[in-house]
Specification:
The protein is mostly helical. The protein has three domains: 43 residues; 96 residues, Receptor-associated Protein (Up-down Bundle); 208 residues, Type II secretion system (T2SS), domain F (Receptor-associated Protein). The protein has a three-stranded antiparallel sheet with strand order 2-1-3. The longest helix is centred in the C-terminal third of the chain and has 57 residues. The protein is flat. It starts with a strand and ends with a helix.
Length: 407
């Protein structure tokens, strides 16, 4: 049976949407009429593959499933599978519990493929934009080894940790971003609306104005005359930069430049290598061979230079080198991670040491970001104070000169 998405009119003429399973569109329409619904549109739900659709269609019509939703679905499937239910019934139960039509349609499509005799990993391969290479490799390894439930539980933990980390970073950035937005808005508003009214009385004075006042008047005139052009220029630059970075060669050059910037390089490397170590640990713990795990884990690296280095590491391991030696020769991975990998290879606990390395890097990254945010907040307040003080002084200095002339 296949999942179909439908649109139909109820008895009051209201348009309703949903997902039903059936063997054909005709059967779905019959089911809708039996429910006293008049079908308007019936189509196969969310069947998308990378091989038979253009890239722009995949990007535009991909199922929008967040990390949080994927973690919740994975957790439900892990619980149901470990309870001993057949896999197709697990998928059916998870679909019934889902409140979102996209997720429900996705799960029903997976159930249809599993009911046809395919493996869950094979069914997930039809949705590469939802289930990435790591996810599918772990599911495939779990199915072959007969411990799909524990593997799904590991995947749920991994996705929940990703969600937690992302939320923490977003929460840490909210206050500084609000401060920056308010600071920019206040300065622009002062320059465009307030300052011209206050300093206009000095612009026709025959007496030479103080340098600060003249600079303020020039800045105010510039913002008043060109603020819209400035905003348009910034938007155009942003769009042009995104267009330029679409080409892998240019994006790789940009990533290489980021890795040479002090401070930024350390943060980017810590984020990517922590994700790499955590993914590699989970894959190996799920029974995926080391070489395959290295190549899959390399795909989670967002920096193209680091991703290329991870491919070199995999090649050296394939040639017989130890993992810690290959990582050390790369020169991109943190020394602590290399030492922990060497310890794990010696003791036979590589998966554990990789996870510990990832945890250590994530804690260090969290502390670094916390320190940066703690410094950024007072700096923004000081910046606002300096800007307001400069505007006030620029207005008051000519007034003080007038008072001196009167005396």
């Amino acid at each position: 049976m296949t999942a179909y998405r439908y649109k139909a009119l109820n008895a009051t003429g209201k348009l309703v949407k949903g997902v039903l399973e059936g063997d054909s569109e005709r059967q779905i329409r019959s089911q809708l009429r039996a429910q006293k619904l008049r079908p308007v549109e019936v189509a196969v739900a969310n069947r998308q593959t990378a091989g038979n659709q253009p890239r722009w269609q995949l990007a535009l019509f991909k199922p929008r499933i967040s990390v949080a939703e994927l973690a919740m679905v994975t957790r439900q499937l892990a619980t149901l599978v470990q309870s001993g239910l057949p896999l197709d019934e697990c998928l059916q139960a998870a679909a019934e519990q889902s409140r979102k039509a996209r997720t429900k349609a996705l799960l029903l499509q997976l159930r249809s493929r599993v009911s046809e005799g395919h493996t869950l990993a094979y069914a997930m391969a039809e949705f590469p934009l939802v289930f990435n290479d790591m996810y599918r490799a772990m599911v495939k390894a779990g199915e072959h080894a007969g411990f799909l439930g524990p593997v799904l539980e590991q995947l749920a933990d991994y996705n929940e940790q990703r969600q937690y980390t992302a939320q923490k970073l977003k929460m840490a950035m909210i206050y500084p971003l609000i401060l920056i937005a308010v600071a920019v808005a206040v300065v622009v508003a002062l320059m465009v609306f307030v300052v011209p009214e206050l300093v206009g009385i000095f612009s026709h004075s025959k007496r030479e104005l103080p340098l600060l006042t003249r600079a303020l008047i020039s800045t105010s005139d510039f913002f008043r005359d060109y603020v819209l052009w400035l905003i348009a220029l910034l938007i155009a630059l942003f769009i042009a930069l995104r267009h330029v970075l679409r080409k892998p060669a240019r994006r790789k050059g940009w990533h290489r430049l980021l890795l040479r910037m002090p401070g930024i390089s350390r943060l980017l490397t810590a984020m990517d290598t922590a994700r790499f170590a955590s993914t590699l640990s989970i894959l190996m713990a799920s029974g995926v061979p080391l070489l395959e795990a290295l190549r899959i884990a390399g795909q989670v690296l967002t920096n193209l230079v680091l991703r290329e280095d991870s491919g070199v590491v995999a090649d050296r391991v394939q040639e017989g080198s130890s993992l810690n030696r290959a990582l050390r020769e790369s020169g991109r991975f943190p020394p602590m991670m290399v030492h922990m990998v060497a310890s794990g290879e010696t003791s036979g606990e590589l998966e554990t040491m990789l996870q510990r390395s990832a945890n250590n890097q994530e804690r260090e990254l969290e502390m670094t970001l916390g320190t940066m945010m703690s410094l950024l907040e007072p700096l923004l307040v000081v910046f606002m104070g300096v800007m307001v003080l400069s505007i006030v002084l620029a207005i008051l200095l000519p007034i003080f000169d007038l008072n001196t002339m009167v005396r």
